[in-house]
Write a structure and sequence with these properties.
- This protein is of the alpha/beta class and 176 residues long.
- The protein has a domain at 2-44 and 92-162: 5'-nuclease (Rossmann fold), CATH 3.40.50.1010.
- The protein is 59% helix and 10% strand.
- The chain contains eight helices and five strands; from the N terminus they run βααβααβααβαβα.
- The protein has a five-stranded parallel β-sheet, sandwiched between helices.
- α7 links the parallel β4 (129-131) and β5.
- α1 crosses α2 and α5 packs across α6.
- The longest helix is centred in the first third of the chain and has 21 residues, at 44-64.
- It is globular.
């Protein structure tokens, strides 16, 4: 089984103060445990990095009242570590002019270029499911699309637990 994981799920997994964090983490750990192929659109890694760096800086300001240089560097380093973790457990789906062509064709269904490119990545990769928190994307995508909690149910029922579990420790938060 191949799952294309949208940006919002990666961000939820790495930023533990977000509402969807526990479901995102459970989904990714279950997928790794069951040997599911995880994918992400190549263009989303920059968004994950930016959102994580911004989120970690905001958290530092909230906890310390100020963002010193060392906290800013730690936020940047942690964001980099998280994108490395993404690359360790998932495969990037490349993009070229054909993805823009697909995105334009999908635009009539879903009027968001970024989401149209995510749909194109799902189509290009032959993903069995696109997994996203984005309700509008789930409603309009021309590919099988599920919310993370629904995908978690599918994984738990469709994938029997292997006798020898694969460690999901590689999804742990990088230490700063």
């Amino acid at each position: 089984m191949k799952l294309l994981i949208d940006t919002n799920i990666w961000v939820d997994h790495f930023l533990k103060n977000r509402a969807g964090s526990s479901v995102a983490t459970a989904l990714l750990q279950s997928a790794v445990t069951h040997g599911v192929t995880l994918l992400y659109p190549i263009g989303s890694i920059k968004d994950v990095y930016y959102l994580l760096r911004t989120g970690y800086k905001a958290l530092a300001r909230e906890l310390c009242g100020d963002l010193g240089e060392s906290a800013a560097r730690a936020a940047e380093g942690t964001a980099w570590d998280c994108t490395r973790t993404m690359r360790d457990v998932a495969t990037a789906v490349g993009a070229d002019e054909s993805d823009l062509w697909l995105a334009e064709k999908n635009h009539a269904l879903h009027r968001d270029l970024e989401d149209d490119l995510v749909i194109a990545a799902a189509q290009r990769s032959g993903a069995d499911y696109l997994v996203t928190v984005d309700k509008e994307l789930r409603l309009r995508a021309p590919v099988a699309t599920l919310a993370p909690e629904d995908m978690l149910v599918v994984l738990r029922t469709a994938c029997p637990t292997p006798a020898s579990l694969v460690s999901s420790d590689n999804l742990a938060m990088p230490s700063a």
